[in-house]
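Narrative of accomplishments. A recurring question from our advisory board has been how the design workflow behaves on a single, concrete structure rather than in aggregate. To address it, we present the structure tokens for one chain from the evaluation set, followed by the sequence designed for it. No filtering or post-editing was applied between the two.
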């Protein structure tokens, strides 16, 4: 990345707009230790469940579905919560298709893992292509949020699968008022919703010397649409993760 001299300022603090990691093994902690920088975590958005009474208005009949597609642990949590609120007993023969093994293993929280038909990919819906082809006749329920992953929906539509999106949770802007007088050298964003939350909380936000990092094309577009300077894009061929992209940046400016 080419840096202008005006923005080549030393990095001492980073705000990651994600929840604090549950494990101390997070690469962000390694980054903080290696370069002696302060790293804080604060989720700019949070999820709220759609109550069963509101879900009923969608006129989705749960017993009609033979399979369910999970793109996140949130989706799994709110699927089983909704079933419980609606007093619907999830049938043992229901098939589960998960975007990753992490999500698949998470289902142990709700079901007897070994006794269920569970399939998973590496990270995206297209990774599930082969296994979905073998189950093309299933009627899929797709639990999602009000800002669902378009990539997964597009894949299912383009390949002609019989699926129904079910909005079971909503993405909501968090209250960040306690950050009003706090400034960071780098703020790392991971979704357009987090940018929306920034401006909902601070309509007069001015970037000044704050360097902005953004993961993913849609997040980067949301930043540029606000006429902000994108200092650290990720992923990049030489930096597939956000921590790697930030580390490369720090190496250039913290000399």
């Amino acid at each position: 990345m080419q840096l202008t001299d005006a923005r080549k300022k030393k990095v001492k603090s980073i705000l990651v707009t994600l929840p604090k990691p549950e494990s101390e093994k997070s690469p962000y902690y390694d980054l903080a230790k290696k370069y002696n920088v302060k790293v804080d975590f604060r989720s700019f958005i949070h999820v709220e469940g759609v109550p069963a009474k509101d879900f009923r208005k969608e006129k989705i009949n749960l017993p009609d579905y033979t399979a369910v597609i999970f793109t996140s642990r949130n989706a799994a949590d709110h699927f089983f919560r909704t079933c419980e609120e609606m007093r619907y007993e999830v049938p043992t023969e229901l098939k589960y298709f998960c975007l990753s093994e992490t999500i698949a293993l998470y289902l142990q929280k709700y079901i007897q893992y070994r006794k269920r038909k569970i399939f998973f990919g590496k990270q995206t819906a297209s990774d599930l292509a082969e296994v979905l082809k073998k189950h093309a006749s299933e009627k899929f329920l797709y639990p999602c949020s009000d800002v669902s992953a378009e990539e997964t929906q597009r894949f299912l539509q383009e390949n002609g699968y019989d699926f129904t999106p079910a909005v079971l949770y909503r993405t909501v802007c968090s209250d960040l008022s306690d950050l009003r007088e706090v400034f960071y050298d780098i703020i790392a964003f991971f979704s357009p919703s987090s940018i929306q939350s920034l401006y909902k909380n601070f309509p007069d936000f001015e970037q000044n010397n704050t360097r902005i990092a953004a993961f993913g094309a849609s997040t980067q577009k949301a930043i540029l649409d606000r006429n902000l300077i994108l200092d650290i894009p990720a992923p990049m061929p030489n930096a597939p993760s956000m921590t790697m992209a930030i580390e490369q940046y720090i190496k250039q400016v913290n000399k």
